[in-house]
Specification:
By secondary structure, this protein is of the alpha/beta class. The protein has 3 domains: 137 residues, Cobalamin-binding domain (Rossmann fold, 3-Layer(aba) Sandwich); 98 residues, Transcription Regulator spoIIAA (2-Layer Sandwich), CATH 3.30.750; 175 residues, Transcription Regulator spoIIAA. Helices cover 38% and strands 15% of the residues. The strands form 4 sheets. A 7-stranded mixed beta sheet has the order 2-1-3-4-5-6-7, with helices on both faces. It has a 3-stranded parallel beta sheet with strand order 8-11-12. A 3-stranded parallel beta sheet has the order 13-14-15. The longest helix is centred in the last third of the chain and has 28 residues.
Length: 454
């Protein structure tokens, strides 16, 4: 049986993992990241798997056109099917409503995908959603085994860049946090399931053999590797350091990054290991300088803890990147000014600003659905200093904070016209994207959308 996996625009780690599982199960598997060329690639395929990682994929005309073209060709090629997996499987009702597909593989798909391909759609298969007699049937997903074959790695993986890395690799699954804008705990669970170091290293060696020069460690908060297995039942500092040392021996320290660490799961030992065995950066989800907004976001930390973690990293010689979210429902002008103030005080090395995106199924999506457009910063007209640019309030805050951060970094950037225009374009694009996702959510409100559950 010939299988084509379509992972739009980049080879996600999840798509490569599923590809490896299917390859070792005996299927003929092809992985492509080009939706425009996928129709030709899938011309003689028996099954297509759409590996989708963004809600915006449901509105992407390239993906819609591909699904329609594959469906129209099914009559001439026998009994073919198209399935969807990936992070968007957390809201199968919306996926089935927007795309002409046969089923959604819900949650971790390593085992259920193989069962689905071997047996076809059935209520006996865990973790799938499909239409039956006009109704959507969803079976309960189960956590997948953390042990699996080597991924299916494309020949051109070395040309890919995701925040500077050719690929991410997974060291564990699950997150003990409860951030209101994040779907990771729902998708992977709140229990940390860590892979063995030997398995991780074998995978990294294979990626390197295939042309990968730089990797980033994924899996949520990197320092939660082997969480709970130390005597203190908390961060297993020794295991995390051993992991970084082993990866550095294969890739070289400056070719390894640990993009995401929570400020409440970091220590001097962890930061010294990041300094010694990686490219020397840590990325914190700081999100806001307002304690009220941090509570609304369910971050589980306050601004004092954020500042402490930043200063601790700086003292350990580690560069700090911080991510911030603007346009959260009920974010006031005072809340926003506190965020600007925190950036002024901390001299971050890099800053990433995002407009709050209501991913279906998250607490943020519930807040957005409960907020009238007239009170939602993503739709409110900005009437302040950027009024002439015709921005929404969220776009104006995103634009303003990005410019502000450039001048407040440890090494300030020169504000050229090119940088100004790039920041403006990014803010506008983010605003368009978030409005599109919000409208999608609103269409499905009360129609089985998981965002409407209390």
């Amino acid at each position: 049986m010939k299988i084509v996996i379509v992972s739009p625009d980049l080879y996600t780690y999840g798509a490569m993992v599923i590809g490896g599982v299917l390859r070792d199960a005996g299927f003929d598997v092809t992985l492509t990241k080009n939706p425009d060329a996928a129709t030709a690639t899938a011309a003689d395929a028996d099954i297509v798997l759409l590996s989708l990682y963004s809600t915006l994929h449901l509105l992407d005309e390239r993906i819609r056109n591909f699904a329609s073209a594959f469906r129209s060709g099914s009559a001439a090629h026998g009994d073919r099917a198209i399935y969807v997996g990936g992070p968007i499987s957390a809201y199968p009702e919306i996926v089935l409503g927007e795309l002409d597909v046969d089923a959604v593989i819900v949650g971790e798909g390593e085992e259920s995908t193989v069962e689905l391909l071997e047996n076809g759609i059935s209520e006996d298969i865990s973790g799938i959603a499909f239409r039956s007699d006009g109704e959507i049937v969803t079976t309960e997903p189960k956590p997948a085994r953390i042990e699996r074959p080597l991924p299916l790695i494309p020949a051109d993986i070395g040309s890919q860049s995701i925040r500077g890395a050719n690929t991410y690799i997974e060291t564990h699954r699950g997150c003990i946090g409860a951030c209101g804008f994040c779907q990771v705990p729902k998708f992977f669970g709140t229990k940390i399931r860590s892979r063995e170091i030997a398995d991780i290293i074998a995978e990294i060696e294979e990626f390197k053999r295939c042309g990968v020069r730089r990797i980033a460690i994924s899996g949520g908060t990197s320092s939660l590797y082997q969480y709970g297995k130390s005597k203190s039942k908390s961060v297993n500092t020794g295991a995390f350091i051993e992991l970084l040392q082993a990866i550095a021996r294969v890739m070289g320290p400056r070719n390894v990054s640990v993009p995401d660490i929570r400020v409440d799961y970091v220590s001097e030992e962890v930061l010294h290991a990041i300094h010694d065995f990686t490219m020397g950066w840590v990325y914190y989800g700081i999100e806001s300088g307002s304690d009220e907004m941090l509570k609304a976001m369910r971050k589980g930390v306050d601004s004092e803890r954020n500042i402490y973690a930043i200063e601790l990293a700086q003292q350990c010689g580690v560069k700090v990147g911080g991510s911030f979210i603007v346009g959260y429902p009920e974010e006031t002008a005072e809340d926003y000014e506190m965020t600007k103030g925190l950036i002024e005080e901390t001299f971050l090395d890099d800053v990433f600003v995002s407009i709050a995106e209501p991913i279906p199924g998250t607490h943020l999506s519930e807040l957005v659905l409960a907020t009238d457009d007239s009170e939602n910063p993503t739709f409110m007209e900005h009437v302040g200093e950027y009024k002439a640019l015709k921005l929404t309030e969220s776009e104006a805050r995103c634009f303003d904070l990005t410019l502000h951060a450039q001048m407040c970094k440890a090494v300030p950037s020169i504000l050229t016209d090119q940088l100004y225009q790039a920041c403006l374009a990014d803010s506008r694009q983010q605003g368009r994207d978030v409005r599109a996702v919000t409208r999608l959510l609103q269409r499905y409100r009360g129609r089985g959308d998981p965002s409407n559950e209390q």
